[in-house]
Amino acid sequence: MTHSSNYRGRFAPSPTGLLHFGSLVAAVGSFLDAKHHHGIWLVRMEDLDTPRCVLGVADDILRTLEVFGLNSDEPVIYQSQRTAAYEDAMAKLQSRGVVYPCGCTRREIADSAVQGIEGYVYPGTCRSGMRPHPNPDVTTSHSTTPAHPQGAGRGCKADESATTTHSGQVAGYLPMGEGASAIRIPAWRVRTDRFPSPQRGEGLGERGGSFDDALQGLISQNLERDLGDFVVKRADGLFAYQLAVVVDDAAQGITHVVRGSDLLVSTPRQIWLQWLLGLTTPAYMHLPVAVNAAGEKLSKQTLAAPVDMAHPAETLWRVLAFLRQEPPTELAGDLPNLLSWAVQNWQPERLRGLKAMPALA
Ligand SMILES: [Zn+2]
């Protein structure tokens, strides 16, 4: 296939479970949009969340995609191997004075915060420094070195101990207050109230984020009011999803992000980070997500069944029907031709304004 356009798209699954109907919808949607525009389509493994990552699942996902004829045009990249790039971005944010360490516990935030659109709105407690601490070095000796030991391979570790214990991993951080048993490592939060270059403020609103989605229209958020300063590096040493996605989309030259509408809420944060890092903002298209009979998004948590690999052509047919593409009946059972037909006849505008639809069993 020739690539006559500058379009670069991607599908970025988290290898926490096998591909299910909902994730296949996102894969197919992003593939069709890229190929319809004669673009490049990439697969990226978002295996950053080390403890949740399941060994071997990434390979299973790639094999499943291959069965459907969805092959990455360039080598698959793994977020677990991209720590250096995230460190660079953190250093940039630090040098621009838009991030700060935060030692607040969930409990402390819950006690003083209001509910926002995604949990509590961080009230900005640590913006002017972490609160008084027995060790004065603590607010000045932060390192961006991950608290996790390196060498976890692709980041797929079976145990979840990394989220709860940090013994022996961290120097320079002492327990908060008398008798505290856990070593407190700060998370890093990005300010949502500060533009490094004010002339770029237009379009995002004074303090918010808004963008024009190809299917969902104008999406607006006020980041400071609706979410508060959000975490870019977690207290367990892992980089936050929001930062990693932004860094990787830029590194891979992604021009078009096509993904599920469940990520709409994340997009203004990602655009905010693109601005702070001086990166280009891609075009966004958020597809409706597939929901089960109870109206819940299909996911590992809602026990969504893995994609039917025994009858891939039928499965692809259902995905295309879900995407309202109305493939001709004579192509039923003919996977390669069904896929080429779908590329040629891709009409995403049929999904305009749809955020969730029942999965087709
Ligand atoms: Zn704090």
From TrEMBL:
One Gene Ontology biological process: tRNA modification
GO MF terms held by the record: ATP binding; glutamate-tRNA ligase activity; zinc ion binding
Motif ('HIGH' region): 13-23
Protein name per Swiss-Prot or TrEMBL: Glutamyl-Q tRNA(Asp) synthetase
Superkingdom, taxonomy of origin: Bacteria
Sequence ranges assigned to domain Glutamyl/glutaminyl-tRNA synthetase class Ib catalytic in this UniProt record: 8-111, 210-308
Region (Disordered): 128-164
Residues binding L-glutamate: R10, F11, A12, P13, S14, E46, Y241, R259
Keywords assigned: Aminoacyl-tRNA synthetase, ATP-binding, Ligase, Metal-binding, Nucleotide-binding, Protein biosynthesis, Zinc
EC number, as in UniProt: 6.1.1.-
SUPFAM superfamilies (UniProt xref): Nucleotidylyl transferase
Motif ('KMSKS' region): 297-301
Role noted for this protein: Catalyzes the tRNA-independent activation of glutamate in presence of ATP and the subsequent transfer of glutamate onto a tRNA(Asp). Glutamate is transferred on the 2-amino-5-(4,5-dihydroxy-2-cyclopenten-1-yl) moiety of the queuosine in the wobble position of the QUC anticodon.
Source organism: Ferriphaselus amnicola
Cofactor binding note of this UniProt entry: Binds 1 zinc ion per subunit.
Biased composition (Polar residues): 137-147
Recorded family membership: Belongs to the class-I aminoacyl-tRNA synthetase family. GluQ subfamily.
Gene (UniProt): gluQ
One GO location term (cellular component): cytosol
Binding site for Zn(2+): C102, C104, Y122, C126
